From TrEMBL:
The keyword 4Fe-4S does not apply. It is a multi-pass membrane protein. Signal peptide: none annotated. This is DRAM1 protein. Keywords: Membrane, Transmembrane, Transmembrane helix. It comes from Catharus fuscescens. InterPro entries: CWH43_N, DRAM/TMEM150_Autophagy_Mod.
Length: 237
């Protein structure tokens, strides 16, 4: 079905479907193996122990690559639109791309350095991934408003900004509650020390993660209008 999508819409569509599958498959495997409790574990908790750790690491690394490709295509589309409309500075578009690529790098770190193996590196990667991701979708929401009404409808812009605001609101307590947890573990049970902090932080983490997924879902319509062409020139001496 992805092949039937016009333009370059297959990029965000594949990113959304693959990332959703990565979260869900890892969660189901971790719960069935008894490695985490079913009630809102951290996303990273579902990819810490084998066999789900291998699936989680592989799929999240692919998600990071797909996200980078999607962000770069988005950058190219805005540059093309900007040639006639001049609604945003090229430097701002480039800065937004760089922020997004930082988030992709953070995702790669999260997938490569597991939570219990190298917790400090893992936590830094998660902070970079979520922090850069929130900034990226916020900047993209602002750019979307600037491109109205020629390249976007206000309805789509309102949806993107709503997702951005919710993600920003969830990101702050996610960090605050996580900072109050005094131990690194994945087998949390209700009633034990710091469980409330873990539970609230995990809810916020899942909210931000699926906020990213729903945000990239809104790119599909925009990407359908464009196609990428690669031209090869051969010069003879």
């Amino acid at each position: 079905m992805l092949c039937c999508l016009p333009g370059v819409a297959c990029a965000p569509a594949l990113l959304v479907s693959w990332s959703s599958a990565a979260f869900i498959i890892s969660y189901v495997m971790a719960v069935l193996a008894g490695h985490v409790e079913p009630l809102v574990p951290y996303i990273s908790d579902t990819g810490t122990k084998p066999p789900e750790s291998g699936v989680f690491g592989f799929m999240i690394n692919i998600s990071a690559l797909l996200a980078a490709i999607t962000m770069y295509i988005r950058y190219l589309l805005i540059e093309k639109q900007n040639e006639s409309s001049h609604f945003v500075r090229s430097s701002c578009n480039m800065f937004t791309l760089c922020v997004g690529l930082m988030g992709c790098t953070g995702m790669g770190i999260v997938a490569t350095f597991q939570e219990l193996a190298v917790p400090s590196v893992h936590d830094i990667g998660a902070l970079v991934a979520f922090g850069s991701g929130v900034v990226y979708i916020t900047l993209q929401s602002i750019i979307s408003y600037k491109s109205c009404p020629r390249w976007n409808t206000y309805f789509v812009c309102h949806i993107r900004m709503t997702i951005s605001v919710i993600s920003c609101i969830a990101f702050i307590p996610m960090i605050v509650f996580a900072s109050k947890i005094s131990m690194t573990k994945i087998d949390w049970t209700p009633g034990e020390k710091d469980y409330t902090y873990h539970f609230m932080s995990a809810i916020c983490e899942w909210t931000v993660a699926f906020g990213f997924i729903f945000f990239f879902l809104t790119f599909i319509r925009d990407f359908q209008r464009f196609s990428l062409r690669i031209s090869t020139e051969i010069h003879e001496d």
